[in-house]
Amino acid sequence: MTPPVVTRFAPSPTGYLHIGGARTALFNWLYARGRGGKFLLRIEDTDRERSTDEATAAILQGLTWLGLDWDGEPITQFARKDRHAEVAYAMLASGKAYKCFSTQEEINAFREEAEARGSYAVFQSPWRGADPSTYPDAPYVIRMLAPRDGETIIQDEVQGTVTVQNSALDDMICLRSDGTPTYMLAVVVDDHDMGVTHVVRGVEHLNNAARQQMVYDAMGWAVPVWAHIPLIHGEDGKKLSKRHGALGVHEYQVMGYPAAAMRNYLARLGWSHGDDEFFTSDQAKAWFDLAGINKAPARLDFKKLQHISGLHIAAGDNAALLHELQAFMAAAGLTPLSAAQSALMEKGMDSLKDRAKTFPDLLDKAQFILANRPVPRDEAAEKALDPVSRGILRELTPRLQTVNWTKEALEPVLTELAAAHGLGFGKLAAPLRAALAGRTVSPSVYDMMLVIGRDETIGRLQDAAA
């Protein structure tokens, strides 16, 4: 029977959740969720000087915003240091590791001598194979007994078969002289103990796989499925950096992208399912597989992100969009909506979400809802409200007092008034927009009137006509 899929995301809490880390988490989440498996979270906080609680909180917040839920409580690597040491001593007892008493000065001298010869050589400890009776009473590290001959094969689901010559592998340190584990040991022990079946991570970790595989073999543990995914580059094809714009997931929330759009876009960064560009998370879970991941680096494309974002806003559930809009406003430090504004926003969402690329776009289109009387007007709106237009608005207001408040009933009233003045409806729409929204570019006149209601519509028309 095939064991259930278990994936993990293992960030270091030394800063915000990077966009590349978010995509790694997403790939792991999609692969596990699509197969009824588990997605686990491990905080790799063994770098005590740089790890902070604030960074951990930022990572958890970023994952939560993206909607990437994890199973169980997050595990912290530092809390498991005794278990890591236990494994190091187990390898020592089985002859798969050894004590090394070499000082840093001796190691440096070895490297300097190799450089002087114009060659690179991995450090060869004189304590490998030494008789324990010759051990000094001095601090030591525990080193892996790496194979010297032959080769190590990494079967990677993305990169293919990767061959590493064992002569290039050093006797890596597993346990430092102060008793703390190295990353190379800790990550393997944690993955094994957590039951991780698939290690999906960045291609920068590919070189680590050969060294970590030695620990699996030494302990007689099953090696997980490896999948090393490509980097994300900027639009210029160079490694992603601050010059390319936003790097942290939190920045994308503040820019006003819906979480579903970010999941959709990030999934397409380095993975594809035919020609599908726009899809739901449920579809992504069903479709995602490791075979669809490309080897080549993906390129961040903000135009494509905006396009995908607009599609998700247009297709979004109105109540859910309002909820996420309010979360965006809080994250961006904007004044929260009042209860009345929230009710009108949800009522008018169908007229707002069409062609909005981001939540700031949505708010911009919603200015007719958010404005208070008298509605402030921009320069174009003031020009639209010339004396003739004001006179027409004065004629219109009494006609709106008794008409049924539906588009079907309002439409003939407005078109007949425009015709009576020898105008097409387009000529009447400009001053109406100016009166209702304070601008000449806005949602449909009828949509605005239906959202804000009869009394507010008449009041705004009277203000503009005065």
From TrEMBL:
Span of the annotated motif 'HIGH' region: 11-21
Name this polypeptide is given: Glutamate--tRNA ligase
InterPro entries (UniProt xref): aa-tRNA-synth_I_cd-bd, aa-tRNA-synth_I_codon-bd_sub2, aa-tRNA-synth_I_CS, aa_tRNA-synth_I_cd-bd_sf, Glu-tRNA-ligase_bac/mito, Glu/Gln-tRNA-synth, Glu/Gln-tRNA-synth_Ib_cat-dom, GluQ/Sye
Source organism: Neogemmobacter tilapiae
GO MF entry, a single one: tRNA binding
Motif ('KMSKS' region): 239-243
Record bears the keyword Protein biosynthesis: yes
UniProt binding sites for ATP: 242
Phylogenetic placement of the source organism: Bacteria, Pseudomonadati, Pseudomonadota, Alphaproteobacteria, Rhodobacterales
Record HAMAP family: Glu_tRNA_synth_type1 (MF_00022)
GO biological process, one term: glutamyl-tRNA aminoacylation
NCBIfam families: gltX_bact
Complexes and interactors: Monomer.
Location(s) in or outside the cell: Cytoplasm
Keywords attached to this entry: Aminoacyl-tRNA synthetase, ATP-binding, Cytoplasm, Ligase, Nucleotide-binding, Protein biosynthesis
Residues annotated as signal peptide: none
Entry function: Catalyzes the attachment of glutamate to tRNA(Glu) in a two-step reaction: glutamate is first activated by ATP to form Glu-AMP and then transferred to the acceptor end of tRNA(Glu).
